């Protein structure tokens, strides 16, 4: 059996009413809370301290888009909004896996804030340990940001419940097992149990990848309504750094998404990277909502698509059903 290195967060996310509940931050850990329709920990490329429910929020890779995000209190309540804090969080949310370091001038431009304001915010965040000042003048997320992100991940029931079952799946197959949720137009990895050498060996808990090029991502996109799908997936969602079989537009992807929804599972055939294949199944809530996806990722040289469908797909779907049942039991006990 190949030697495993396990990377996962542990503990508690209860599926919340409304969609893909548990988004958590990834990549370079950042404390931005996922926005969009659900706010869980946030990671679309950065680990954020927020937890949420509903449809998994959209923390897209583009910092400027995130900078435009605002939080509003319900209209019938006073707005308890601290603008200075909101600006600080907006700036922190710009740090992600695609751009982990920033200069103050670039932060000001991306956030749409005056340079003196951003300078004061950055100095405050640095003094509190949330940003580190690098010798070249750039800033990156500090250790205290990582602490927040880790706490968010460990607060997820989904991770705690799923980890033992995914560990068993990895032991049976001898291959790499992942659990991820949708965060904007990307998938955020909450569990990664690496059992074999893969092209994407640098992926870890908190990392994000383009949803349109991954088996879990396509699976989760398949269960969105048309409006949500169109809002999340744009031309920018289709990365140039992809595999030889990658789809290049939403128009091209839609037919496959319909097939995935009908059959209840998804495959990635060298779409993310050359030499990598995977098969994914859904984790659902008690009322049938898709909360997350699980896949087994394998080297294409060892696994044909037919062999994956024959040998791995049944085991993945059975494991997903077990985890879904355990989540439903946990939700019922909490009532």
The tally of helices reads 10
CA radius of gyration: 19 Å
Q: Measure the end-to-end span.
A: 42 Å
**Low-confidence runs of at least 5 consecutive residues:** 1-78
* Overall tally of structural domains: 2
> What is the CATH top level name of the largest domain?
Alpha Beta
- Which structural class is indicated by helix and strand composition? alpha+beta
- Averaged pLDDT: 78
Series of secondary-structure elements, N-terminal to C-terminal: EHHHHEEHHEEEHHHEEEH
Structure description:
There is one protein chain. The chain has 335 residues and is an alpha+beta fold. It folds into 2 domains: 21-151, Winged helix-like DNA-binding domain superfamily/Winged helix DNA-binding domain (Arc Repressor Mutant, subunit A, Orthogonal Bundle), CATH 1.10.10; 157-334, GAF domain (Beta-Lactamase). The protein contains 10 helices and 9 strands. Strands 1, 4, 5, 6, 7, 8 and 9 form a 7-stranded antiparallel sheet that branches. The chain has a two-stranded antiparallel ribbon with strand order 2-3. Strand 4 (176-183) and strand 5 (186-194) form a beta hairpin. Helix 6 (157-173) packs antiparallel against helix 10 (305-334) and helix 7 packs across helix 9 (250-263). The radius of gyration is 19 Å and the shape is globular. It starts with a strand and ends with a helix. The model is unreliable at 1-78 (pLDDT under 50).
